[in-house]
Each structure stands twice: as structure tokens, then as C-alpha cells.
Amino acid sequence: MAPFLLHGHIDVTIYEVQNAEALSSGLPSIVRVIKSVNHYVSIYLDEVKIESRRVKDVIDNPKSEESFYIRCAHKTSNIIFILERANYLFSGRSVLGHAYVAVDEKILNGDEVDKWVDIVDESKKPIPGVPKIHVKLQFFDAKRHPNWSQGIKDPDFLGVPRTFFSQQKGCKVTLYQDAHVEDNFFPRVVLDGGETYKPQRCWEDIFDAINEAKHFIYTEISLIRDPKRPKHGGDITLGQLLKKKAKDDGVKVVLLLWQDGIQVPIIGNYISIMHTHDKETQNYFKDTNVHCVLCPRDNTYFTHHQKIVVVDAKLPNGDESNKRRIVSFIGGIDLCEGDMTLQFIHSSEP
Prior knowledge:
By secondary structure, this protein is mostly beta strands.
């Protein structure tokens, strides 16, 4: 079946699983006897994972239900529900089964779909005992929303729904296509109003934001890498910069690090299997003014990402008062070892 574009959001409710005991039949015998306290449902649009949530009671308690609000902008043929069970003998989760809801004209038209769906194995073959999942879903096309394409120009637009913070005026978002670009990099990208895209330098902006912070920094590489564009104090590493801000300028610096779930003892020491460098970082900032906090996780998947820096910054209008704004660098970049992806967002708000 050809994929359809789902751009908008999907309201999904999972009510219960019928014949749930049959889902363990395909697991190894040693896994079947392990008592598990956590079940999960992951929702995919074809191969794209959209959401994953612990939903133990949906399987164990027929009267419970779980609701999901799925934002999407994907071409897909199926909305897939993958049921999983956590186990603690083997790290991670065991897949119990898959349920497929084909995207059809009824879904595209925004009709409510309420049905029992067969749960099948990874090869889409029936599972003995015929387990089923009861789901209800409804797709809401973005183009049918009254504020589609109006944005903040519409005086009645209250902001993106279901977000933690309400929309505010005076905010700014900068999109980075890379962490660093050369001076001769000038792609011809025309923006609204006839303006031309001007590349931004993420590393340098992060350095400036940290260096100019007065009150707090929430987050061993050098941020300034281009010898042709030197900055005062730019030859120090990120760790040295954070120590300096905490000690000399009295800035509150807090680092939140993934705590490695797998530690292997090697000659009286431990090595990190997941390479989060949590212990090394904690030791580096030991007995300094930098607060280094290890954040435990409830699984051992290889999904650690260091993706956010939050600092206070001066107001953009040149206001020299004591008022400050919050600036955040959010996106796919790893400040620990310099690994990067191509999307990074710099946002600020008063």
C-alpha cells in the first residue's frame, strides 16, 4: 500500500489487550518465568518511532486505558503498536507482538476508528491464542485547523497546544545547519521577504552564551576551533570554562549527566560500556563549584544524548538593566566528545 502523508496530530486511546497470556508464548522459556513489572507500548508510523510509554495496567487490568497525543508529519502506510515487556535478566525489553492499523481514506478524512486489532509476530504471522488489542484513534489534519499557516499573525492564536510553556512575545529561534562553518560557506537560500540565509556558528554562540552568563548555566572539547576567528579566552576547554564561571564569576553551574547503567570492573576500576563518561566527568569537577549530577535511567539502551545548554543572557534590545532572558541550545549535538548531527536549535525567551 502506498504511504499517505499524515500531517497534524492523532488522538490514540488503548483500552485493553485480550488474551494477553498468549503474548509470552514466543519468548524463551527462561524469560517467560521472569516476573516483569513493566509493559510498554511503542507507536510507530511505519519505521518511524513516535512514542513509547509504560502501560502495564492496559495488559494486566481490562478496565484501564492509555491515551496518546501524537504529533506527526510523516508519510506512512500503517500505524503500528508494538507491545514490549521489560525483563531484568537480559537488559532491555522483549517484544511481545505487533498490531497494524492500515492508513485508509477513513483515517485521512478524520473519522474516528474504534476497533480490535490482531496482535501478530515480527513476521506478521498470527500468534497462537489470537491476542488482540482494542484501540481508538482519530487523525486531525493540520490544514483543517483554523490557525493553519496563520501563526502569530492571527491575534486569536494562543500558541502551540499541549506545550509546557505558553507562547510569549519577543522570543527568537536560530536554526543551525552545522556546529561550525567556514567563512567561505555561503549557500544561496532565499527566505521570506527576499532575505538570504546567513549561516550561524553554533560552537561560537555556545561559547559566548556561557562566557556571558551572570546567574546560571545548566548543561573535554574546545568550542572555538577556527584559528582565523579567535575569541578572548576561547582557547580553553568547555570544562575549564565552566570551572572558571563557577569560581571566578559566581555563576551557578549545574551538569546533568546520564549515569551509565553498565559498569565493568577492570583492575580495581570501572569502564563505561555506554561511554557516557559519567564517572570521569564527576571526578573532573570534584571539589569545584560546578554541581555535577548523575541521572539514573530505567533501561540500558544505548540512547544517551547531551543535547541542552541553558544560560541567562542579556536582553537583545540593549537594555542595560538587571533584567535577563533565558537562552537555550537544544538539538542533536554532543558536547562531550564533539559528535554532531546537522540539526541544532538556539531559542531564547524573556
